Amino acid sequence: MARKQLQNLTEPMYYILLSLIKPSYGYKIMKNIDELTFGRVKVGAGTLYSLLSRFEKECIVEQISYEKGKKTYILTKKGEEILKNEIVRLKELVSHGDDFLGGENNE
Amino acid sequence: MNNEIKKVKNKVSIVNYKALEPYFTEMASKGWMFSEFQKTKLVFCRTEPKDIDFNISLFSDKSVFDYPKETEVIEKEYIETCEECGWNFCAKNGIYNVFYKNVDVEATPLYTDSEEEYRIIKKVFMKTEFMLIWILLLMCYVGMMHFSSFGYETLLNNLLLFSFVSPIVMVVAILYYLSFSFIWFVKNKRNLKNGDSLQFQSFKTVKCRYNIYIFMLRIYIGLLIITMISSKIPINFLFIGFMPAILGLIVGKYCKYRFKNKENSRKNNIRFFVISIILTLFVSMGGLILSITLFLPNYDIYSADNNSDNKILELSDFGVDNDVEKFRMDEQSSLISPINYSYYERIAFGKDKIELDSIETEYIEGYNIALANWIFDLIIQEKLDRDSRWLERDKEYLTEEVYLEKKENNKLISVNKDAWEIDRGYYMYPDKSKIVIQKGEKIYILDGNLDFSNKEIIDICRHKLDI
User: Fold this and answer.
1) What is the ipTM of this complex?
2) How many CB pairs under 8 A join A and B?
3) pTM recorded for the entire structure
4) Fewer Cβ atoms within 10 A, N terminus or C terminus of chain B?
């Protein structure tokens, strides 16, 4: 599946980080994204674990526990920062779109 | 292979790993369920024909330098997550994880983001197949060394010929193999830029390419075997030649065993591997030098007597009979020359020097006139290049007059073809003491303190050499 081009985070990246505001593990993250996006964004296990490993290496997420064969992750301060910046950026994009389309509609 | 098990060579490269999925599906529909990886082989078990979908993922974080237990936990969790998503675990090796599901079961594919998948493929490729680039660079270096030393003598011995040709074959084979991967990366990067999905080749195409690659490697091995047999290399020389490869293999096996069984970080294992390789190189080089020093004196390439029917010139042909030392180079042949040899005689050191103190005959036969012409041209070209190189080197020490005189002397002087009854020939020195002549497929290089334009000398030479 080709992803939609986002400037900073890809959609799977964004939703994984969003899911990790609260502690979560592999399958739960996938389920959460599925429910959150009403099935629009699907993150496969391969993509999820590859991204989690990247995030962990870059200290964006950290492992907080390992129970019953499941690693639980949570967002780090750095991860929160990245996520907040992304949200600000997305809001700005939407606001610019609203201004433009709103102006056009008013005319 | 029995009726219940089928083993197929895995011909898929990292960039086309997806080709395995439809292939496994096709095999399952024919009643062959994929069961395991065995080194370079895919193992299938006989089952009822099934409609099954396969999905394969790559281990991007694992390398041969990792202690397996370190990645075991995450691997286990990953497999469990895939199973929770509806995929059944089938098999794995160090690179691939294979999962399957019945066609009617719904499950999210393992990779849902093309960009991330591309990144994973690139990472795994760099850790595995890209390593071939080191062999490629080594072969390019060896090839360049051989190119710079290429001369007519390269054509006279299969071992030299192989040393010259083999890096080319290897470079072509590796470039051929890697080029498809590079093309894949370029093509799919463009696809991603355009928002398209990754494209993979079919198993049939991949198989065809792989077979061509293996064909090239077989040519290489074939050439090596022909060389070994035809060169009649003594067993101790063979051992010396293969010593670096044997040592490298032993060290490689030990490293693999150590990384698998001893808990060390990836960094430490890489450090250990690099040091091992450097030590292996040093030991190999030391061993090579030592072996050559020990074995070379025992390898008698000279023989005092000319027992064969080879046509040669001897000092006795010119009235010199006493205190003569005889040296005969081993007769050799190659794919270009069915026979070539050289014979040399000289007055023993310490004895009174006379006008004619040495004579050398080099005989080269080409398989046909075209090949003989090629060898002859190379001999002449080498002489001209050498003379001009030396002259340019000494130019700053010479006066203009001497320089021009030497330049004039370096020009080739043609031999009187009618007197020799040959096709062509040149004197190599202005004093006509060295001559290269060709008659049909036969080439002679004669060297001695003689004037080879002298009729009497010509007659002796023609009679002795059967020209």
Assistant:
1) 0.81
2) 88
3) 0.73
4) N
